[in-house]
Amino acid sequence: MSAYVALAIFLVAFFFIATEKADKVKVVLIAAGLMAVLGLVPGAEVFFSEHEGIDWNVIFLLFGMMIIVGIIKQTGVFDYLAIWAAKRSQGRPYRLMVMLMAITAVASPFLDNVTTIMLVAPVTIMVCDRLRIPAQPYLIAEVLASNIGGAATLIGDPPNIIIGSRAGLTFNDFLVHMAPIVVVVFAVFVLLTRVMFRGSFHYDAGHAAAVMALDERRAITDPRLLTRCLVVLGLVIAGFALHAVAHVDPSIVALVGAGVMLMVARTDVNEVLREVEWSTLVFFMGLFIMVAGLVHTGVIAAIGTWALGALGDDYFVAATALLFGSGVLGAFFDNIPYVATTAPIVEGVVAQIPDPSTGQALWWAFALGADFGGNGTAVAASANVVALGIAARSGHKITFWQFTRYGIVVTIISTLMAWAYVWLRYFA
After folding, report:
1. What residue intervals traverse the membrane (predicted)?
2. Which of the two ends of the chain, N or C, has the fewest CB atoms closer than 10 A to its terminal CB?
3. Whole-Å CA distances, 300 to 17, 37, 248, 383, 403
């Protein structure tokens, strides 16, 4: 009975989030509260268990990076990059979109897609404001590109870290098995954006000429602070890249980096904290508790066990079910808690497969489905939620369905391409 109640609360909350009939932060707080009051989450453990509660690694990673970005913003470097990008693209909207998507997709495998969006989104908003064009299509395209690009490596997307830990897969394993299909999917996505956003590519020669006349170097307001910030940011990025070797969580790297950044900037802490997207952090905490209700009452495990149990010994069918099932479920339940919950189920199935290479194929199908499914809806991945929060705060609000109508198209196409890739590489 408790499983049905938890599922009902989740679906009602998701309805209000999707239709935007109520503020999403209020919705998740009410839903999370109901889960706790009705005993559908594991009591106080919801604050301590990353599998059945709030994943503080994600929360503090976001918090630390928000502080870092807030301090870097004070140097004027985002305005500098905005003018530089506008001049490089000569004010041509589609050329600008491709440039921003390429930067995002290349950075995401090494920074992780959430960090990349937090760095690129402010630049995007500034360049769009300079060119007097709507920022929403560019932000949506960047988030989709980030989720695609982040799938290429172990550290590029949080679900990959979970899968890598469970399956014993290394950074190089992900690079060899995931990067080839990611490159192909991204190339198709670049062409697809020309069609999806065709109504947004309005070129204004006057605004473009005005931007071309600007000197981007004048945008830097504090060169000395910028130098110190870039050194700290470089160390943070190195920490992200080496976190698996040093056995230090990315959240710790981000928090230490934020502390060092505050020290070298010698700025007012209260002023920097105003740059933190508190509503986004609260939304994530509420969402994690909502999903914890589904985990604790066995809803997600029951779905996964039933789906995999019904497949028998046909491992290609199992891989297909994992790929498409993860794409669908990951789009609605947030792919981080979904992967954390489903990974033990996949591990159990793989352990029963005699051929290790076939077992690995299931892991790659699982990873591709979860990563590409992160584009499915506005709440499917951390990068999506962060981008929508930044957009709303800057006056360029993106609605749930405005994002989702593009995300669904990209998810369907990328998942079908991933399915063909899995079949050709592991089962043909």
Report:
1. 58-82, 94-111, 174-192, 225-246, 252-269, 281-309, 315-333, 403-424
2. N
3. 20, 21, 29, 23, 25
